Amino acid sequence: MPNKAFLFILLALTALALPQAYAGEAEPTADDVVLEKRVNAVSEELRCLVCQNQTIADSHAELAIDLKNQVREKLKQGMSEREIVDYMVERYGDFVLYRPQVKSSTLLLWFGPFALLLLAFGVLVAKLRQRRKAMREVPKLSADDHARAESLLSGKDKGAQS
Amino acid sequence: MNRFLLPLGIFIVLVIFLGVGLTLKPREVPSPFIGKPAPAFRVPQLHEESKTLSPEDMRGKVWLLNVWASWCVSCREEHPVLVDLARQNLVPIYGLNYKDKREDGLAWLNDGGNPYIASAYDREGNVGIDYGVYGVPETFVIDKLGIIRHKHIGPVTPEALRDKIIPLVKELNSAK
Question: Which domain holds residue B46?
């Protein structure tokens, strides 16, 4: 009997301990949630230079983890998001920005596709206009043409049919 | 004839763009440090923990800062080239042992030879981040005033030395 009670207590304790064990693995504790959110927000703006098509938030490369830790440290020190992004640009260049800034050297990158789209649309409109004009200007038929068409339609002109 | 001219033109432009794209090296991100002062640091040396190393100690000479690690595969390829360069006494090479275990780093230098006058020991990789290091090995050419003049990403090859690094070092050395 005391054995059973002991077992029950043990089970209850395990049950209590389990969620905590998981909480230990998923890092953020209650007061860190806000900070982690900010760390993630900044990380999503920064490109991982090892695996270049990922942000450092997505990447598991060692450098990305280091940079994320740097971001966390700097946020803790009270640096603003803007300042941290600038800090990274100073070291890694504009390339570290996952969303390139709009400036003279990136204008083509940002607006090139729209320019192409406009150009294509312009070509389309011009082509359609040309075609409509061509259709409106049906060539005038002479009296001879009419006579020939008539004879073709009535089936008298066997030679043309074969 | 005209019907084919336009598509052909577009095709040729496309081929040119794709061809240029093939020759680009997206892994080589231009460093924003070129022409800027080398970031300051003062960290313990790899061999003697009590001694420190700082770019300030190198004022007045042209030197190379080579970022390396024992875990870095392409450093293995680069190492003999650096050992050879060190033998020629053209330019002092200093190392930055990046995110390495001290004993691993020391063992690596014992095995392959030590081309470095000294190596700074950057256990946490903070100096590396300050220098914008993202792929080891990387090599910086730093001039007499402590300005970074060139950054070589990836293993230093004999060609890179011959065509870029050594001429640059000579030019910087002859400058006042």
Answer: 34-174
CA distance A49 to B55: 25
pLDDT of residue A118: 97
* B105-139 pLDDT tens trace: 999 999 989 999 999 999 988 899 889 898 889 99
B40 in contact with A, Cβ within 8 Å: no
Which domains, ranges and CATH numbers included, belong to chain A? 2-99 (1.10.8.640), 106-156 (no CATH)
Compare CB distances from B129 to A50, A66, A94 and report the shortest one's residue.
A66
Residues in chain A: 162
- Give the span between the Cα atoms of A129 and A72, in whole angstroms: 60
Within a domain: residue B131?
yes
What is the Cα–Cα distance from A123 to A66, expressed in whole angstroms?
Answer: 51
Sequential DSSP letters for A47-112: B-SSSTTSBTTT--SHHHHHHHHHHHHHHHTT--HHHHHHHHHHHH-GGGBSS---SGGGHHHHHH
Q: Which two tokens stand for residue B149?
A: 């003049």
Structural domains in chain B (count): 1
Measured between alpha carbons, how far is residue A19 from residues A13, A15, B114 in Å?
11, 8, 52
Chain B residue closest to A96 (CA)? B29
Q: Which residue of A has its CA nearest to B124?
A: A66
**Chain B contact set for A89 (CB, 8 A):** 32
What ipTM describes this predicted complex?
0.73
Picking from B143, B113, B112, B138, the residue whose alpha carbon sits closest to that of residue B127 is B138
Q: What are the Cα distances from residue B59, in Å, to B56, B67, B141, B142?
A: 5, 19, 13, 10
